[in-house]
Design brief:
The protein has 81 residues and is mainly alpha-helical. The chain contains three helices and no strands. The relative contact order is 0.16.
């Protein structure tokens, strides 16, 4: 993954650090299946998803959530507020 300049220390514990970054950034319309499989086994999956939502990450799979899934969660949260 391409990470911001200052990243939380827990990023180093992610399984993505041991995986080809291209898995997490598939071409438009490409499958997110492989990335999600890695994420589901990752000990920091929840933190990673929260980070992506809090920092409005618009690209790639973070914490097992695709770009589309994160947009949907943001919309749901906005509608609930």
């Amino acid at each position: 993954m391409i990470l911001p300049q200052s990243t939380p220390a827990w990023f180093d514990d992610g399984l993505c650090a041991q995986t080809d970054p291209e898995v997490f950034f598939p071409e438009k319309g490409g499958s997110t299946k492989d990335a999600k499989q890695v994420c589901m086994a990752c000990p920091i999956r929840v933190r990673c998803a929260e980070y992506a939502l809090d920092h409005d990450e618009r690209f790639g799979v973070w914490g097992g959530l695709s770009e589309r899934e994160r947009r949907r969660l943001r919309r749901q949260a906005a509608n609930a507020a």
